[in-house]
Amino acid sequence: MKLNIALILVLFGVLTLLMEIGILNNFHRGLLVLVCINVILAVSLNLSAGFLGQLVLGHAAFMAVGAYTSAILSSRLGISGLGGFVFVLLAGGFAAALAGIVIGVPALRLRGDYVAIVTLGFGLIVQSILLNLGITGGADGLLGIPRLANFNVAFFTMVIVVGMLVALVRSRHGRAMIAIREDEIAAEASGVPTTWYKILGFTIAAFFAGIAGGLFAHRMSVLVPETFSFVYSIELLVIVVLGGMGSFTGAVVAAVVLTLLPELLREFGDFRMLTYSVLLVAMMIFRPKGLMGSYEFSIMQIVSKIKKKG
Amino acid sequence: MEMFVMQLINGLSIGSIYALVALGYTMVYGIVKLINFAHGDVIMVGAYIIFLLVMYTGMHFVPAVLIAMAGCALLGVLMEKIAYKPLRNASRLSALITAIGVSLFLQNLFMTIFSPAPRPFPTIGLQGSVRIFGNATVSNLAIVTIVVSLVMMGLLQIFVKMTKMGKAMRAVSEDAGAASLMGINVNTTIAITFAVGSALAAVGSFLFASTFPQVQPFMGLDMGLKAFVAAVLGGIGVIPGAMLGGLLLGIIEVMTRAFIPGGTQWSDAVVFSLLIIILLLKPSGLMGKSVGEKV
């Protein structure tokens, strides 16, 4: 544990040093914040899709709930310090979790496929609410959100979120969730309260998506509803599927690579979704467990991997 | 009163398109237990086929629609053979993700070929309207839409109830293993189901693109989702349920737009909230029967 914390601090130190001496410029710095946000989204989606086995197609909508809630709070209350920022982030997370409960309770009592449709429908409802409600600024967007999310905050939020999710999955509750993914009927027969755990996992995933949304809002300082469309939800799903359903390592690596790749290869941008769609089908047919499967590297190897990529 | 009747007929017209598309979802779900996300995009492909044939070869609508039906049927079969068949025994999650992949592929392929810009769909010469009573008028197009849809649904019922292939389809959806022991070719039956559902979607695409006269690569997403809600509303897997669900959904949508202040902006939210309410109250749908899970 001490070793893990030390390695994370070393990674953080190296990245900060690179920024200080100017090897990583402002553009890179912004990109790194985006990487941290996408990692949070990917690992939280991995909890519901990978470990719980529920296909969630509206993860970006939970992010939107968190983003708008925290953004409206911080601009109305005039939040500036770190303490206030943490407060609005948590508020956004709880709002998203609340939405998760409202959506999850009807959807998760049923068999898997309905979750996909209900979360997809939820995404469209959220878009339509964001476009039509006065307080969200409609199609013009929500402007003037204080830029509170710098690299340091995003990085440590990411570390805390990943740490909490890893701890959760390794606990008794995590094992119950994996049992549900493997065989829901058998899990129920063994005394696992399946509906309870499905709603719990789903709500926790929504909570962290809300936190990521809050970071995103306070990084961009402008929010428009189109950002949180179905396409974003699918991109997150591609990250999880590609990395490995049920592997946090896979989700983190895939999130880093798939966030950086389109930015670095601009020409690739036009064919991004076409490539993703072919990848999704090919992955399901040839390697349904994802590139990593459920394999987790030790933290030592993750660090060396990210260093190589960074 | 006149307003109400006019809107009711508009709702029936939209609803019968939803019903045609919902049939494809419900038939496929009934037989392979898969939500075919790409079904909405089959509509888009059908609309593009008709658009291209009519605009660039000057073909009449009737043969163009027939060719689109054949094209969509072929697309449905190909989709099943390439993407879904290898996963028939895989987990449901994998099959669903594949279906989303196929849907995204079709959307983005057409976007790359035809650009995302919407194109005007040619009008079919039914611009007039008929007066039914008082000042209530109904457009010819709405009447044609309702009649064509009803005819197609009738033909489908005859196909499913009276023909040997229809019987095979019902048998496979009941129990694929037992059906194959009785000498039914399960693979052929599944392929035919995809073909029939997709051909109906092609008719739906023609009616849809005539009612909202444009085609664009993402038109199937919204339409497909609503048709799916219709299928769930009626009870997924039940063919008459899809028809009832489609008609009801169309009426609800049109009525929301017409009679609730600001309803136009909120009609999508109403449709999907309806889905969530159905799932809370009667998850098996209006005409579905709830079946306990067996090991």
Structure overview:
The complex is a heterodimer of chains A (310) and B (295). By secondary structure, chain A is mainly alpha-helical. In chain A, 75% of the residues lie in helices and 0% in strands. Chain A has helices at residues 2-20, 26-51, 59-77, 82-108, 112-132, 151-170, 172-182, 184-189, 194-220, 230-243, 248-264, 272-286, 299-309. In chain A, α2 (26-51) runs parallel beside α6 and α11 packs parallel to α13 (299-309). The model of chain A has no long low-confidence stretch (mean pLDDT 84). Chain B has 11 helices and 4 strands, in the order ααααβββααααβααα. Chain B has helices spanning 2-32, 39-57, 61-84, 92-114, 140-162, 164-174, 176-181, 186-211, 219-234, 239-259, 263-281; strands spanning 119-120, 129-133, 136-139, 214-215. Chain B has a two-stranded antiparallel sheet. In chain B, strands 2-3 form a two-stranded antiparallel ribbon. In chain B, α3 (61-84) crosses α8 (186-211) and α10 (239-259) runs antiparallel to α11 (263-281). The termini of chain B are far apart. Classes of the chains: A mainly alpha (310), B mainly alpha (295). Chains A and B meet through α4, α5, α10 and α12 of A and α4, α9 and α11 of B.
Helix and strand topology:
The complex is a heterodimer of chains A (310) and B (295).
Chain A: H1 2-20, H2 26-51, H3 59-77, H4 82-108, H5 112-132, H6 151-170, H7 172-182, H8 184-189, H9 194-220, H10 230-243, H11 248-264, H12 272-286, H13 299-309
Helix pairs in contact in A: 1-13, 2-6, 2-9, 2-10, 2-11, 3-4, 3-5, 3-9, 4-5, 4-9, 6-7, 7-9, 10-11, 10-12, 11-13
Chain B: H1 2-32, H2 39-57, H3 61-84, H4 92-114, E1 119-120, E2 129-133, E3 136-139, H5 140-162, H6 164-174, H7 176-181, H8 186-211, E4 214-215, H9 219-234, H10 239-259, H11 263-281
Antiparallel strand pairs in B: 1-4, 2-3
Helix pairs in contact in B: 1-5, 1-8, 1-9, 1-10, 2-3, 2-4, 2-8, 2-9, 3-8, 5-6, 5-8, 6-8, 9-10, 9-11, 10-11
